[in-house]
Write a structure and sequence with these properties.
elongated; 47% helix; disordered N terminus; 2 domains; 334 residues; 14 helices; 6-stranded antiparallel sheet; alpha+beta
Length: 334
């Protein structure tokens, strides 16, 4: 395991004076409290500061950071609080270029287990699973706005109201206070895994609505991610998992379905239908149409069997984004 200096200090070495240990010794005691305050002109590999088999609580007062596991991501904006747990497998994490000010409380798995094992049944399921499976689990936990009390706590951590001789006791008490606030499952709160699924579906629904409303000029993946509130990487992965197809595949499907409607209406020729759904190249439009509908667009209005199949598919899947998503969730393809 890397020493304290080899990990966090080395990662923030380009930002002289931007990192300082406030109290604790992770290697000897299993806990450490650190403060970070720096300006970066480029993205920072935040994950390189994370330790194996550790929980890290982040009180993020300014700057944006993102922590990702295989299934989810946690976004730290200004004045937010959250945590993430590492196993032997590394989490992915970056901090965007700009000003950053945050405090981290690093806790070893053993330290957490010593204090929380007697209360394991009351913990969030993700924390309970991580605590009991050494080296095999890691996850990005929930992030939320800091309350006024938590903002005051963050301020006091950098300027403790006690004698330096009392620092070890005082800082440990604050670390345990933070644990008590974030790792227990509140009564009536949905499970973290349920919340992640709900948020993922809501983001995909928003993405579907945006794409359907902008078929002729759809936003790129960066713009789409910004509009639904997550990174392009996370949106692409979540969309594919929820829909069973990639964003470009879905966009082609709905564009060709819309083009088929226009052609069947008798009010649009092939060129007009292509332009209406965002294709300036007739050759590209014809190729995509043939792949989705089974024949070239010129012949489609008279292809009775293909029209019947197209209408049957539309009736099965529904025309709304939510209906499409419901079908995908049941494993039913169009």
């Amino acid at each position: 395991m890397k020493s304290l200096v080899d990990s966090s200090h080395a990662a923030f070495r380009p930002y002289e004076g931007g990192w300082r240990r406030l109290c604790g010794n992770y290697a000897d005691a299993g806990w450490s409290v650190e403060i970070h305050d720096f300006v970066s002109k480029e993205n920072v590999d935040w994950a390189s500061t994370f330790r194996a088999d550790s929980m890290e609580v982040c009180l993020n007062t300014s700057g944006t950071g993102v922590v990702r596991d295989r299934a989810a991501e946690s976004v730290f904006n200004s004045n937010t609080l959250g945590f993430y747990c590492s196993g032997n497998e590394a989490l992915s994490a970056t901090r965007e270029a700009g000003r950053h000010s945050f405090i981290t409380v690093e806790l070893s798995r053993g330290y957490v287990a010593t204090h929380l094992e007697p209360m394991a049944e009351a913990l969030r399921p993700s924390v309970r699973a991580w605590m009991g499976r050494r080296g095999s689990s890691h996850f990005a936990g929930p992030v939320g706005p800091m309350s006024m009390a938590q903002q005051n706590l963050a301020a006091s951590l950098s300027n403790p109201p006690v004698s330096p001789m009392a620092f070890p006791i005082w800082y440990q008490s604050k670390a345990l206070e933070l644990l008590a606030q974030i790792v227990f499952q509140p009564k009536g709160e949905e499970l973290f895994c349920q919340r992640q699924k709900r948020v993922a579906r809501e983001r995909v629904e928003r993405a579907l609505a945006i794409l359907n409303a902008n078929l002729s000029e759809p936003p790129d993946i960066e713009q789409l991610g910004a509009r639904v509130g997550c990174s392009p990487f996370y949106l692409s992965r979540t969309f594919s998992r929820e829909m069973g197809m990639t964003i470009p595949q879905y966009l082609r499907r709905v564009r060709m379905d819309r083009a088929a409607e226009l052609l069947l209406s008798g009010k649009h020729n092939v060129t007009e239908a292509a332009l209406e759904v965002g294709y300036s190249s007739l050759s590209h439009f014809s190729k995509a149409f043939c792949q989705e509908l089974g024949c070239c667009p010129v012949l489609f209005p008279s292809a009775k069997a293909l029209i019947a199949r197209y209408k049957e598919r539309r009736e099965r899947t529904g025309s709304s984004p939510a209906a499409f998503l419901d079908r995908a969730a049941m494993g039913i393809s169009g």
